[in-house]
Amino acid sequence: MTAKQIITKTAVNIGRLLVAVTFIFSGFVKGMDPLGTQYKITDYLEALHIDWMFPDWSTLVMSVLLATAEFAIGIFLLFAIRRRLTSKITLAVMIVMTLITLWIVIAAPVKDCGCFGDAVVLTNMETFIKNIILLIFAVLLWRKPLEMPRLISRQTQWVVINYTFLFSIVMSTWSLWYLPQFDFRPYHIGANIAKGMEIPKGAKQPKFDTTFILEKNGERKEFTIDNYPDSTWTFIDSKTVQTEEGYVPPIHDFSIEDMKTGEDITQEVIHRKGYTFLLISPHLDFADDSNFGSIDEIYEYATDHDYPFLCLTASTEKAIRHWQDITGAEYPFYITDETTLKTVIRSNPGLLLLKDGTIIRKWSHNDLPKMADLAGKPLEKTEIGKMPEVSAAKKIAGIISWFVIPLVLLTIADRLWAWGAWIRKKENSNRILSTFKKKRKMRKKIVAGNWKMNMNLQDGVALAKEINEALVADKPNCDVIICTPFIHLASVAQVLDSKVVGLGAENCADKAKGAFTGEVSAEMVKSTGAQYVILGHSERRQYYGETAEILKEKVELALANGLKVIFCCGETLEEREAEKQNEVVKAELEGSVFHLSAEAWKNIILAYEPIWAIGTGKTATSDQAEEMLAYIRSIVAEKYGNEAAEETSILYGGSCKASNAPELFAKPNIDGGLIGGASLKAADFKGIIDAWKK
Fold this sequence. Notes:
The chain is α/β, with parallel strands linked by helices.
């Protein structure tokens, strides 16, 4: 491997790790807080004035799908699963995300993009720079996807794929039903609300204006705290706007107001000693009322023990009355900003328990405390009244045990199996090598040129003359064959010394003669002076639909007319990545030439051509080529016996050049090359031929 290749591979895998970790983290925090992601999606839709087109359920589905997609892309990059497809998807996602963040930087529709949820808050410009860096690496991964080594074999990739999607969806569903396992917001368990609202001494204080929207007799007006009207007005909504910059404490928008009098009771609540229950519902219109019975029981328990129980909402009086009608709620209702309530708890409704102004418990409406756990005791004497002992470290350990450990164990098991299979394959290959290495001298060494559809008649004759003169002057240490288009055959035959350079055709028909316009029969080829014909080339299979049965007919006609056959076989990139190269090659030989008699087989030369290395500049490594040719020789031995296999010349055809020919030809089972582009220049072709002298 050259220094440039090492640098490229290193850059690709550094980028792969960076992009993978970013996507995994981004997808994880989004999946852990699907409601928070939904709120951010809604912010974008509102900025575009199209939020009316998307009901809440659709934005929630978008949230879960976005988190799952990001998490899956990250895992697939990390494990190098479906490398080419994953790299294309990654590039497409990064192009879209970069364009979106460019729009955010210019238009500033939101304060932060929310790419990492509440875990890491970046400015819009920081997000744009981050996306530019990731986009650069995404382009590199798209250009060089196969430079990413797999952590797990192709056969077991489906396990990781399914497990990743399942884990992400279950994680989001769990967080929706209960609460996010990790709470990165300022209202997390253990946070003291009063302390979160403190501003350091000397720090410049920002200024906010709160506007209240109220209605009376069908008329809506906006009021401030200074001119708040009497109770004959109905509260509709409120909004808080920052008017001056300054130090913003983690909790800066928490307020509790009496909806009838406008009295602010925030300080009274957050500084109260003892326990306080806060029922949180941004909008009672959309609150889940399936567990109202449990809420009422907790309210009655709180009343019995003199614990305040308040419902904080941003709902209208009409919505509150409707909630009271369907649930029988007797607890008092107070007004708090909608965005604040959505930030406090990801549940509608949700329940908080404060002790001395510190949040010690949070419950989803699906997981409210059971009265049996309280058993009529005061909170001081119950587990519910104490701060939970589950630490962030334990939660992280739980996530690792559920997701990371199974994948690590799967990877280790898969690698051990792969290494074992590789060792067994290597041992088998070595046995084949030792069997045939001794007899290599008996086999003909061959370099054959395949001109394909190149050269007019005059240029072709000139090239043939140049090759012939060079080899007459400097005798080759191998058999040399040039296979030309049909129009060249007769003319080229006249300028070649057949003792030095053999002549072959690139194809022949599968019919002996008849009304087959444009076809050239094996008999016609033979009549030009040619001795060889190439059959089964991948380009004939791919572009002209030549099947195993068609090739079988061609082989028989070629041999019947005294031509020696250079028969090609090889696999595509997809087949090699699926580790099916052996079965593909074996099927091609069995379908077209393995029916021949042992006598007819003596006129067959095999050429292994990895299709992914033809005309691409890519070359199978010498070890890969040797392994395949050793395998081919072994199945020839199975069919015709060791002696026939020892005498069969097998060529390598796949971007063979003068620079890599010596290494390839040094392998014991590689008997030469079927050369494409490099055979169109006499000097290049001669350089490959001379590799047999090294």
